[in-house]
Amino acid sequence: xxxxxxxxxxxxxxxxxxxxxxxxxxxxxxxxxxxxxxxxxxxxxxxxxxxxxxxxxxxxxxxxxxxxxxxxxxxxxxxxxxxxxxxxxxxxxxxxxxxxxxxxxxxxxxxxxxxx
Amino acid sequence: xxxxxxxxxxxxxxxxxxxxxxxxxxxxxxxxxxxxxxxxxxxxxxxxxxxxxxxxxxxxxxxxxxxxxxxxxxxxxxxxxxxxxxxxxxxxxxxxxxxxxxxxxxxxxxxxxxx
Lengths: 116, 115
What we know:
Order of helices and strands of chain A: EEEEEEEEEEE
Number of helices of chain B: 0
Oligomer: heterodimer
Number of helices of chain A: 0
Largest interface: A-B, 33 and 26 residues
Structural class of chain A: mainly beta
Distance between the termini of chain B: 41 Å
């Protein structure tokens, strides 16, 4: 079965550079979530999109932005990178509205971002 | 605010023995609870969920979880542990906002199964 695809899997950047992470949800999933997992930390919710509209926002820095495109893939844009941005970034997808209680989130393998 | 707590950073069990990974929750309204497992350098894999219905939920790889409303707990269990079960386990609660929902995770419990 198709899973959530994230690219790149690994990314190394310098401080103050920009980075773009991509997420391709499971086919027919219309909701995408982004999470950040710092070293030894639990995943923290950043932002989510439903039908190409932002649906919820968590602890996402103003330096970060994201969007969901017409094909439902999503991109997380990160600017002015800081050392503390080094983390594993997960994308997850699900189908349906929030009222779809049985719609668990399926996670991608993550993108490991290292900021030097 | 919805939250879950995993009181143990690490759990060690011998292969073949039963295992329990603890999780307690704090929610307003009905809880929607999940367990995920994370293997090294891998994404989060869904194990099981409690939405409503039977308090004993069965999931993937022989895992099950018992929802206890009076104790606000959702402990993960397996009757006989395998070395391959060694991984990081996260309990999570779903909260709804707008047109989607987000997961709030516990701090994780590292399970080590020894021979």
